[in-house]
Design a protein that fits this description.
Blueprint (H helix, E strand, L loop, with lengths): L19 E7 L9 E3 L3 E9 L6 E6 L33 E7 L5 E16 L4 E9 L12 E4 L9 E4 L4 E2 L43 H12 L5 E2 L6 H4 L1 E4 L13 E4 L5 E2 L5 H11 L2 E9 L5 E9 L8 E5 L16 E6 L7 E5 L4 E7 L1 E2 L10 H4 L12 H5 L3 E3 L7 E3 L4 E3 L29 E5 L5 E3 L1 E5 L8 E2 L7 E3 L3 E3 L5 E4 L7 E2 L14 E2 L3 H4 L9 E9 L7 E2 L12 E5 L6 E4 L12 E5 L1 H15 L4 E7 L11 E6 L3 E2 L17 E7 L6 E6 L9
Parallel strand pairs: 11-16, 17-40, 19-36, 20-37
Antiparallel strand pairs: 1-2, 1-5, 3-4, 3-42, 4-7, 5-6, 6-7, 8-9, 10-14, 12-13, 15-16, 18-39, 19-35, 20-28, 20-34, 21-22, 22-31, 23-24, 25-26, 27-29, 27-34, 30-31, 32-33, 37-38, 39-43, 40-41, 42-43
Helix pairs in contact: 1-3
């Protein structure tokens, strides 16, 4: 329900034991307490930890006291602002500062660890103020953008050396896999640190050693290669792949997040991380798929500050801590012992919901064999020596359009532009029937439209060395089936080794020899019981067929596009809080494909098509994760806790407001077993201004700009 709630704390004091906040200069090479040198004239006003590629930030102010002329601490900005200013009471640029909080029970906690930056002076006739900002040690992760990549040798994809090269850090370029094989990572023996590297995307062999970059592999590579852990420690890698999967319902159920659900890797789309700071590259891909990233600051075992990077889920499968907010019941007095909220502002924004996703993929591709028909009208007498001369290639420039096509153009006529129908000796505009290749849907409706479909020069079928075969043309003199038509499997055929080329604008071939009457078709490798001639008399056999130059048929085996994409679509689930379907279409034409070899074609004599590549599961996993990232309305706003509270962290979920019995769940469908989804803490601010201590909790995403 959109809106906000403000709680009036009346005049009841919100006082309680405060933590002691100290600002210290930090020397990591010193021992014990000597590492911390307290700065008595510097006070911390605010610290902010936020979700995403943003280092923790702290705001500081100098205490300027000119009441005691003998005081050693500077009382004027003139002793603090100059670059050459120095001393135990001056914080110089890039000095490392740590903010420590000591609770009333004596427990010390590190709230911030970073480097001083951005000093500022504000001078008025009545006052002067000297302040500066410090950025967390995670800011060092921005010092060196990604450049080049680690790549393994093409002749040893499994165990080869990973070489640092100056090639773009481009993942799955144009939808081609360029990651090393699964199970053969760098440091493979140690699951906590292992990571894959790049591999040549153009290697073409069987079995294919390449693998796709998934979100888990991407995160492990980025962290393993570009974060040397000098300032920020990586998470253990052994759980990242499972964490960063797309989760979906069981095949016979709608809920997600429960036992029996499905899981699939999220494959990275074509992404170039070159020149991008690695935290931003991580956030780009994690945020797109609905995951979060945070920098955490705490202590290690000996009291030193320790910063870590963590990634986490934000959907119904999130496993982070669930927190509550505390308010008194309606009409009750504010009791600090039972209440931790002084102000509260919430707004649930349903305008940006996307609960259904269609991934637009490349058109499906089919390898098929079609028997071509002449794209010209043969005329008796054209075979004579006097008339044949105009069909020579050297004379085509002076020929009209019809003569340039004669005895050279053979077409499938998939658009019904016209072909010669030899059995009736007439010109026909009946289009090629592809219904047995592109079959009707379950309702009996056609799934293809009659249109031009240029053939591809490479096939889906591969040879014994694993390389794609070339489009093939064959000739038969005893084929008795229809033409043009999808080949029915009959006839004896001899492959033609050369002298022809695929048409660029439609499915068919053009005879490119000098004289179509003397078409060298190569040595016999076909299946005819008697070896035919190595030279095909292309004019005589069509214009005046007679033994041994009887009429022939040409069979072309090539790859054409289907009119359908992959069925990569997910619909709205019962968990969606809106009654309307709000669909998003995502262009992924460069990435996902479906390739089949048609039934009864040259390389598939079976009665059913043969699937060679099917990216449908990966495309559906991508669609499912995009839906999970956007199907629920963000709860925008925040709450202020009138004390220093370190229990709330970025990435935590806020489940309810106790005392008012207000649940903050953003999805529905709990009766069907749906795992609850709650607002995510996206930033935590500790505020120490005006002699107070407060914790500000910011929830979920920033507001969506719908005007753009």
């Amino acid at each position: 329900m959109p809106g906000s709630f403000d709680f009036d704390p009346y005049d009841v004091p919100l006082s309680g034991p405060a933590a002691t906040i100290r600002v210290c200069r930090y020397e990591p090479d010193a021992q014990g307490e000597a590492r911390y040198a307290v700065l008595p004239n510097v006070t911390c006003e605010r610290i902010r930890h936020a979700e995403g590629p943003e280092p923790p930030t702290a705001w500081f102010r100098y205490v300027l006291d000119d009441a005691d002329p003998a005081a050693v601490a500077p009382a004027d900005f003139g002793r603090l602002w100059p670059l050459e200013a120095a001393g135990p009471y001056v914080v110089r640029n890039d000095e490392r500062l740590v903010v420590l909080a000591t609770t009333p029970d004596g427990e010390a906690r590190v709230l911030f660890d970073g480097f001083a930056q951005a000093p500022q002076v504000d001078l008025t006739p009545q006052s002067q103020r000297v302040s500066f900002i410090a950025l967390g040690v995670a800011s060092r992760c921005w010092d060196e953008p990604i450049g080049g990549r680690l790549q393994r040798h093409a002749d040893d994809p499994f165990h080869g050396e990973a070489v640092a090269v100056h090639l773009p850090s481009r993942f799955n370029p144009d939808g081609k896999p360029n990651c090393t094989p699964d199970g053969f990572d760098v440091e493979q023996a140690d699951a906590s640190v292992r990571y894959p590297v790049f591999f040549d995307p153009d290697v073409d062999r069987r079995p294919d050693p390449r693998s796709y970059w998934t979100l888990g592999k991407f995160v492990r590579y980025i962290l393993g290669v570009y974060n040397d852990e000098s300032y920020v420690f990586n998470p253990d890698f052994d759980r990242l792949d499972a964490l960063l999967q797309s989760r979906g319902p069981a095949p016979d159920a709608s809920p997600i997040g429960g036992a029996g659900g499905t899981a699939a890797d999220v494959v990275i789309r074509d992404y170039d991380a070159t020149n991008v700071p690695w935290p931003e590259a991580l956030a780009d891909q994690l945020g797109l798929a609905g995951f979060g990233l945070r920098f955490l600051t705490g202590e290690d075992g000996d009291g030193s500050p320790r910063s870590e990077i963590e990634v986490y889920r934000k959907d119904a499968d999130a496993a982070g801590p669930v927190r509550d907010l505390l308010l008194p019941g309606p009409g009750a007095d504010l009791n600090p012992a039972r209440c931790n909220v002084s102000t509260l502002h919430l707004r649930r924004d349903s305008r940006a919901i996307v609960n259904a996703v269609t991934v637009e993929t490349a058109q499906r591709r089919v390898e098929l064999s079609v028997v071509l028909a002449p794209g010209f009208q043969p005329v008796a007498g054209d075979e004579s020596a006097s008339r044949r001369a105009k069909f020579l290639r050297a004379n085509l420039a002076a020929s009209d359009g019809e003569d340039a096509r004669k005895y050279r153009l053979y077409v499938a006529d998939e658009a019904g532009d016209g072909h010669w129908h030899a059995p009736s000796s007439s010109w026909s505009t009946a289009a090629l029937d592809l219904s047995e290749v592109f079959r009707d849907d379950e309702k009996g409706a056609s799934t293809y439209v009659k249109r031009l479909r240029p053939g591809s020069s490479t096939l889906i079928t591969r040879d014994e060395q694993g390389r794609p075969m070339r489009a093939q043309l064959a000739v038969s003199r005893d084929y008795a089936g229809r033409s043009p038509a999808v080949w029915d499997g009959t006839g004896h055929w001899q492959p033609i080794s050369g002298g022809w080329q695929l048409l660029e604008d439609r499915l068919g071939i053009y005879v490119a020899v000098e004289d179509p009457e003397s078409w060298a078709i190569g040595d016999y490798t076909g299946d005819h019981p008697q070896e035919p001639s190595r030279t095909l008399r292309g004019v005589t056999s069509q214009a005046n067929p007679s033994s041994p130059n009887t009429r022939f048929h040409l069979r072309l085996t090539a790859v054409v596009e289907d009119d359908l994409m992959l069925p990569a679509s997910v619909d709205a689930r019962p968990a969606s809080p809106t009654a309307f379907t709000r669909r998003c279409r995502v262009d992924a034409r460069d990435h996902f494909a479906l390739e089949t070899v048609a039934a009864r074609s040259l390389h598939n004599p079976e009665a059913e098509p043969k699937t060679v590549r099917d990216d449908t599961p990966r495309a559906v996993a991508w669609a499912r994760q995009l839906r999970a990232a956007h199907e629920l309305p963000p709860t925008v706003g925040g709450a202020t806790v009138p004390s220093l509270v370190t229990a709330y962290r970025v990435g935590d979920r806020i489940a309810r407001i106790n005392g008012r019995d207000v649940g903050l769940q953003t999805n529905v469908g709990e009766a069907q077993g749906e795992t609850p989804v709650y607002p995510i803490v996206t930033a935590v601010v500790w505020d120490f201004t005006d002699d107070r201590q407060a914790t500000v909790i910011e929830l979920s995403d920033a507001e969506v700009d719908h005007a753009s």
